[in-house]
Amino acid sequence: MSLKNKIKKKIKIYPFYKFNPYFTYFVSHPNKSFILHILKSFLCTMINFFNYYKKNKVTVFFCKNGFYKKIIKEKETPEILFNLLEKKLNSHQKIIHNHLENFTYSKKKVSDQDNQQFVYDIEKSFLIKIDDYVRSDKDFDLIIKNYFKSEYRIVNLRIWRYLPESKSLNNEKVGAHYDMFPHKTVKIMIYKGFFGKKNPSLEILNAEKNETLIFSVCGRNPIVIFDSNHLYHRANLPKKNRDTIEITIQPTFFDKKPLFGGFSAGYPLNPFKKNRNKIFL
């Protein structure tokens, strides 16, 4: 394969893309932070230019469709995080929106009427456990490396409980949307409980065809990895408590140490800068 074709392969436009991220973020809707992320992603692929990442039917499916779903096995690491959620929600928590400098976040107002209850602080030991879990899962590890064409890093971890509709709550819905994250960001969503077609944990929709359903994330304790920038998705109000783990992953050079931005944090503003802990007095 020629050098030119190798470079094209590294920065290809995948079938599930709804827009060209290179044209969009450089030309039509320039975004400084997103441009820096694209440059870092490109440099990451160049560092790993001659590395070969094994492909299988799972990686091929993801690269065609932009998602892949499986079921959590009993006594796997996510169960530890769901136990942490239970413990934190039954104790007093200091509300901290964002723990790191050089990080996007929204100053979300928190009240007793919220139908989404978050974990506001996650200890380092849990970050290490979930990082080990992702890397030890051959399917997820191969999907991410094949998609990024480089190594990867967890840049945020969020855990929360989504409560069912109630007269005493604000019943906020997560309507259909695309995430506005930098190019080559993927998310892993993990759900606790049983979900059927009438009560899915997550739905992937066709935005161009009146939000017709493409895929429902169902089953007992499902887990899905997907590119949330290009897949139109929603999470309807649950029928009963829906415990959720969200893992945000981006390309990296060499530093694979997982980050915890916060419950309302997004991603590093400048991917080339360090994310130091904020000092809270």
CATH class: Mainly Beta
Which outline best applies? globular
Poorly predicted ranges: none
Proportion of residues in extended strands:
25-35%
Number of strands: 14
Per CATH, the architecture is Sandwich
CA radius of gyration: 19 Å
- Domain module count: 1
How much helix is in the residues?
Answer: 25-40%
> Largest beta sheet: what is the strand line-up?
1-11-6-13-4-3
- Backbone structural class: alpha+beta
What order do the helices and strands follow? HHHHEHEEHHEEEEEEEEEEE
CATH H-level superfamily: q2cbj1_9rhob like domain
End-to-end separation: 57 Å
CATH topology: the name is Jelly Rolls
Q: Please, how many helices?
A: 7
Overall pLDDT? 91
**Tell me about the biggest sheet?**
6 strands, antiparallel
Can you give a write-up of this model?
A hairpin with a 5-residue loop joins strand 8 and strand 9. The protein is an alpha+beta fold and 281 residues long. It starts with a helix and ends in a 13-residue tail after the last strand. 28% of the residues lie in helices and 26% in strands. The protein has a single domain (13-268), classed as Sandwich (Jelly Rolls). It has a 6-stranded antiparallel β-sheet with strand order 1-11-6-13-4-3.
